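Hi team, as promised in this morning's meeting, here are the two structures we talked about. I've kept the exact order from the run log so nobody has to guess. The first one is mostly here for context; it's the second one we should focus on when we meet again. Sequence first, then the predicted structure tokens.
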Amino acid sequence: MVPPGGTTHIAEPADRTHSETMRVTGRPRGARKRRPSRIPGGPGTPRLPRAATTALGSLPGLAAAVSLVLCAHGVERAAGSADAGSAAARTTPAFQAARPPIVPRAVWLGDNARDQPPPRYDAEVVAVFVHHTDSPNGYDCADSPDIIRGLYEGQTLGRDWDDLGYNFVVDRCGTIYEGRAGGTDRPVTGAHTQGFNHGTTGIAALGTFTEGADVPSGMLDAIAALAAWKLGTSGTDPRGEVRLVSSNGGSRYAAGTTATLHAVAGHSDGYMTSCPGAALQARLPDIRTLAAGLQGRDTAQQATWKDTPNGIHEAPKRNVTQNEEQMS
């Protein structure tokens, strides 16, 4: 056993031949000079867990010494790994944006929620896909919750999806609504862009924005603020590009193909559709610049693409799960 704060003393078995007794040689009285501990576990080294020292007490002398050294080495390595993990966890991207105000889904959903499986999550959000809902534009913003609830019912009842496909919905007044369940501050796997739902978030503009339609400035500002915040969590420049692996051959890219897309892209960039409409698609460069500015980037300089050595963010390939892909 190891005395608290002392060094380890290991008794060797006594030689019992000829019934000889073991003699202990005395030492002259006086101050004893403490020697530095040669076995980890003494003063100045990480202490072992109580369970480990208890178990070691039952081992024979030499075996206990060897086990003690190995155990202490493991403790030191574990402590080093924990410190490294903590340092990594404290690392945050240099360019981030504030979280904009978001209306919770309970406001538009009320008591109309259907039974659904638990939300699915990705490691991070590295791209944003912008959509339009293909619904009338001349609505009163006070009616937005009712319109979003209608979209939810159309997708869950009409198409038998498990939830609203979009992660967020933005109305013409610039109000941002939480869409798909799972938490606005988490990388929820959406069902908005077939083949590219992983590592992305879907933002739907409430209305129809085909050629010639006016895109309200409040809506553009809100989409930019939302994109800046979500992309900032992964250090992605909204003006940059990302590499995404297609998970479905029904997209513009065969399953397993790596596509290089804008970090703020339109639905039609990943899927064969006219969404988000020509008018909104034409304003995506403005949204990218606005979002980059909100992250504190110098918009007069060229995009950094991604705050990593290779300059482009590559989202990991994920397996496709049921009811997560938009089929039209």
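And here is the second protein, the one for discussion:
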Amino acid sequence: MKKKAKFKASTRSGKARRSPLRSPAPKPSQKPAEDAPQKENVAAPVTRAAAVPDGDARGEKLHKVLAQAGFGSRRAMEERIRNGEVTVNGKVATIGDRVTPDDRVKVGDKILRWAQEKQLPRVLLYHKPEGEIVSNDDPQGRPTVFAKLPPARGAKWLAIGRLDFNTSGLLIFTTSGDLANRMMHPRFEVDREYAVRVLGTMHPAAMDALRQGIRLEDGVAQFEHIEEEGGEGANRWFRVLLREGRNRIVRRLFESQNLTVSRLMRVRFGIVALPPQLKRGQFMEMSAGDVEQLLQWTAEPGAPLTATIPSELTGHSRPRRSSPPR
């Protein structure tokens, strides 16, 4: 019988080589998952095994293949197909088209490269400091997290979830659109855990209300778990868990109880915890073994890990600063 995961802090000190994967909090219920010509670039590889599932000689749906290759989300790929930006064997593609590794697929000026052997997607962990935006294009010219990341080597880094300008903590990037979709889509109800410093006094009635649900302007929201963790003076620390990623949802929930969030930090997303050795402004790449574990878990997000996964950090996985030490 599997032991249920216990809600606990994810930022405690530990061995520098410990895997970032953790067991998620148990769920009370589970929902079923369901321009001008330029030099041609080569996109991330898609494996033959993924592209042509057994029993389907027609291949895989085009928008799904493109998402898996890191071109963007499935919805974004459908939109690009509608806009006539995708071609298959020189002909403009349409919604519902299927492709196999024998097809030549282009998205704009990029060619989809079919890999001959199975390749894992890359997964990158970044400790975002306050004062950076999770966007490639900001009209205000603020610093962007994407400027701090290493090259994706023919692919594109996709952010799994966002953190606002004044929020710090764990950001996950991947070259797999399918992995990003499975971790972000609301129907999968993947845990997000935060450490929150609040200015003001939390009364028992407010704590109960946050657990039971608060009606906000965009619908009802609640914390699956909220626990006080001490503090000094007027500042109190809380550990909260929720299973959605609406804009500023943590801050808005506390504001509904007339409490001001003075610091907000994400410490876990699904089974991936912010590694204690990963300092602000640093990134590290997950090992192949941990990526495989993550892919297995996203296939069935409700299944907890029974233990911390041991893994050795390779040369590419050691934390690296994206800016000079201060």
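Starting points for discussion:
The chain is about 15% helix and 25% strand.
The first strand starts at residue 41 and ends at 42.
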